[in-house]
Amino acid sequence: MTDRTVSVFASFHPHPGREVELRALLAWMVERTRAETGCERYDLYEERDAGGVLHLFERYRDQEALETHRATEHYVEYRHKVAEMLRDPIGVVVLDPVDART
Q: How confident is the model at residue 102 (pLDDT cuts 50, 70, 90)?
């Protein structure tokens, strides 16, 4: 495992009429994920003028913390629920820092 921080940028494009439900699910995830030991950031954003498109910016202490997050009960539950709310698959980009402030 690396001891470098790992960042994730995830994008969510909801089906029309599912925007409120998606926002509630992601707010539920924010609360739980921020309590994880290895989570340094877990911030939810709404794309301006994009019809309810949401983005999560996540940063974890290291790769092990990200893997621990993905194994949590709340993450597994969220993954089971979120797909039906989306018109496209979640866009996920995992980033390693090159020149980033921590």
A: low
